[in-house]
Write a structure and sequence with these properties.
Elements: H1 26-42, H2 45-54, E1 64-65, H3 66-72, E2 80-88, E3 100-106, H4 108-116, E4 120-122, H5 124-130, E5 137-140
Parallel strand pairs: 1-2, 2-3, 2-5, 3-4
Length: about 190
């Protein structure tokens, strides 16, 4: 069977981000180059996974909190936690254990608390020198389903009523007086 060009044609202009680096961040671009090289030369699954995750969009690189990080690293002394994403602070946590963490970035308070506990925060290029094949490391991810995701989607309007149904609006309060007319009921324009 041929391709029905009138109906939709070939999918052109859709190069996967694994072929073309989409990010403009020069640091990330260099990291992708470095880990691509390591994955090829060392045949390490760890490096291949890191490259795959470095290519991901921001939504697919969710942050991880210190509390969750500490929970995952319990009884894993001498190992380095590796997160392709951001490490954030958790104010509910009173004492931070000694951790060795490698991540793309850290919030200021998270970095302070890890260092104060006698741990260390390292970058991916430092990790490549220390453990090129990912020996003694533990690859972690943050939780994908976050409260913020409820707000993600396109804006709705009369012409475009269902881009993603149920996109949660950023509303100050959920009371009777707050954004309850147009856009929230059929009788006033449209409803989402």
């Amino acid at each position: 069977m041929g391709i029905d060009l009138k109906a939709g044609g070939r999918r052109t202009g859709h190069k996967s981000s694994m072929k073309v680096i989409k990010t403009a961040n020069p640091y990330n671009r260099l990291l992708i180059k470095l880990y691509k090289f390591l994955a090829r030369r060392t045949d390490s699954k760890f490096c291949a996974t890191v490259v795959k995750r470095l290519h991901m969009s921001k939504v697919n690189k969710p942050p991880i909190g210190l509390n969750r990080l500490a929970k995952y690293m319990k009884n894993k002394d001498g190992k380095i936690a590796v997160i392709v994403g951001k490490v954030t602070d958790d104010v509910r946590m009173l004492e931070v254990p000694k951790l060795s963490v490698c991540a793309l970035s850290f919030t200021e308070t998270a970095r302070k608390r890890i260092v104060a506990a006698g741990g260390e925060c390292i970058t991916f290029d430092q990790l490549a020198l220390r453990a090129p094949t990912g020996a003694n490391t533990i690859l972690l991810r943050g939780p994908k389903s976050r409260d913020a995701l409820a707000h993600f989607g396109h804006s709705t309007s009369v012409n475009n009523p269902h881009p993603h149904d149920g996109v949660k609006p950023y509303v100050r309060s959920k009371g009777r007086k707050f954004e309850k007319a147009r856009g929230r009921r059929r009788s006033c324009g449209f409803k989402i």
